[in-house]
């Protein structure tokens, strides 16, 4: 397999290849904190989310949330998360996986009890409804400096986001332009070699390969960053699932940060 040119560039040198402020900030943070680790905080109350943020925030470039599973979500919580994102220097990614027509996603993104666009720097969408979903989301997010990822591939067993679907997702992003769509959720680099710089964020990561009982499949940070050329590893239960509280989580996050960063440094040495 040939080496994808993007994988030979440093995160820092890629900042100037982006116009979107969230994409730029993410790459700057990655370089500054030497971290390509996103922690996925999939717990169901705000106190627990904030405890995990306090424990691992200094180790990560990004915190990923599922706001709709947090039973006591409030705007005060969102403010607190934003405050932490400044203090501890990370991007907030709300993993909303929008999947409706443009007009509906405008409201889902902007309104309701979650008001996602008001606090999340980054969110994501399935391409299944067609380009109108990007038009809708960007009408809300672009003026706020927000960014969007499209789900081009998934980590779960038997998913339908493969082959032609993935190629068409890439095509849709290209046609939308990189002002608002900045990259993909994908398992490997799905962008053609001579194209612009796209960010590849990859879930389904564990320190050992494996899976869960509901179809999730795990690959190691090295597989994802070095072998598959992705940019960010997304780790949920591998970090917040460890026993021993805040200190244990911090130690586990540091293991992932180091594994992800070493794989990146190794990849920069390839020719
Ligand atoms: O294909 C995907 C896309 C996403 S965003 N597979 C995933 O697992 N995710 C998300 O990543 C998922 O919703 C969860 O929040 C996280 C993985 O969590 P873990 O506990 O399995 O590491």
UniProtKB/TrEMBL annotation:
<dbReference type="InterPro" id="IPR013785">
    <property type="entry name" value="Aldolase_TIM"/>
</dbReference>
<dbReference type="Pfam" id="PF00215">
    <property type="entry name" value="OMPdecase"/>
</dbReference>
<dbReference type="InterPro" id="IPR001754">
    <property type="entry name" value="OMPdeCOase_dom"/>
</dbReference>
<feature type="active site" description="For OMPdecase activity">
    <location>
        <position position="100"/>
    </location>
</feature>
<feature type="binding site">
    <location>
        <position position="237"/>
    </location>
    <ligand>
        <name>substrate</name>
    </ligand>
</feature>
<feature type="binding site">
    <location>
        <position position="216"/>
    </location>
    <ligand>
        <name>substrate</name>
    </ligand>
</feature>
<protein>
    <recommendedName>
        <fullName>Orotidine 5'-phosphate decarboxylase</fullName>
        <ecNumber>4.1.1.23</ecNumber>
    </recommendedName>
</protein>
<comment type="similarity">
    <text>Belongs to the OMP decarboxylase family.</text>
</comment>
<dbReference type="InterPro" id="IPR014732">
    <property type="entry name" value="OMPdecase"/>
</dbReference>
<dbReference type="GO" id="GO:0044205">
    <property type="term" value="P:'de novo' UMP biosynthetic process"/>
</dbReference>
<feature type="binding site">
    <location>
        <position position="236"/>
    </location>
    <ligand>
        <name>substrate</name>
    </ligand>
</feature>
<feature type="binding site">
    <location>
        <position position="42"/>
    </location>
    <ligand>
        <name>substrate</name>
    </ligand>
</feature>
<dbReference type="InterPro" id="IPR018089">
    <property type="entry name" value="OMPdecase_AS"/>
</dbReference>
<keyword id="KW-0456">Lyase</keyword>
<feature type="active site" description="For OMPdecase activity">
    <location>
        <position position="95"/>
    </location>
</feature>
<feature type="binding site">
    <location>
        <position position="64"/>
    </location>
    <ligand>
        <name>substrate</name>
    </ligand>
</feature>
<dbReference type="GO" id="GO:0004590">
    <property type="term" value="F:orotidine-5'-phosphate decarboxylase activity"/>
</dbReference>
<feature type="binding site">
    <location>
        <position position="155"/>
    </location>
    <ligand>
        <name>substrate</name>
    </ligand>
</feature>
<feature type="active site" description="For OMPdecase activity">
    <location>
        <position position="97"/>
    </location>
</feature>
<dbReference type="GO" id="GO:0006207">
    <property type="term" value="P:'de novo' pyrimidine nucleobase biosynthetic process"/>
</dbReference>
<dbReference type="GO" id="GO:0004588">
    <property type="term" value="F:orotate phosphoribosyltransferase activity"/>
</dbReference>
<feature type="domain" description="Orotidine 5'-phosphate decarboxylase">
    <location>
        <begin position="36"/>
        <end position="252"/>
    </location>
</feature>
<comment type="pathway">
    <text>Pyrimidine metabolism; UMP biosynthesis via de novo pathway; UMP from orotate: step 2/2.</text>
</comment>
<keyword id="KW-0210">Decarboxylase</keyword>
<dbReference type="InterPro" id="IPR011060">
    <property type="entry name" value="RibuloseP-bd_barrel"/>
</dbReference>
<keyword id="KW-0665">Pyrimidine biosynthesis</keyword>
């Amino acid at each position: 397999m040939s080496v994808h040119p993007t994988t030979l560039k440093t995160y820092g040198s890629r900042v100037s290849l982006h116009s979107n402020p969230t994409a730029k900030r993410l790459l700057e943070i990655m370089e500054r904190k030497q971290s390509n680790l996103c922690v996925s905080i999939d717990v169901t109350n705000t106190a627990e989310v904030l405890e995990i943020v306090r424990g691992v925030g200094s180790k990560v470039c990004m915190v990923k949330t599922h706001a709709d599973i947090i039973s006591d979500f409030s705007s005060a919580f969102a403010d607190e998360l934003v405050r932490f994102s400044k203090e501890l220097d990370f991007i907030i990614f709300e993993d909303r996986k929008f999947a409706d027509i443009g007009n509906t996603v405008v409201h889902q993104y902007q309104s309701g009890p979650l008001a996602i666009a008001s606090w999340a720097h980054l969110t994501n969408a399935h391409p299944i409804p067609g380009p109108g979903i990007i038009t809708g989301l960007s009408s809300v997010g672009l003026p706020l400096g927000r960014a969007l990822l499209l789900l081009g591939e998934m980590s779960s067993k038997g998913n339908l986001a493969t082959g032609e679907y993935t190629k068409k997702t890439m095509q849709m992003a290209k046609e939308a332009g990189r002002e608002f769509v900045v990259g993909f959720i994908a398992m490997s680099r799905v962008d053609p070699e001579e194209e612009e710089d796209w960010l590849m964020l990859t879930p389904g990561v564990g320190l050992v390969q494996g899976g869960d009982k509901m179809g999730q499949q795990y690959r190691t940070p090295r597989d994802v960053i070095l072998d598959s050329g992705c940019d960010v590893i997304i780790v949920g239960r591998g970090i917040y699932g460890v026993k021993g509280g805040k200190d244990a989580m911090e130690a586990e996050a540091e293991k992932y940060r180091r594994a992800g960063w070493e794989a990146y440094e190794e990849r920069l040495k390839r020719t």
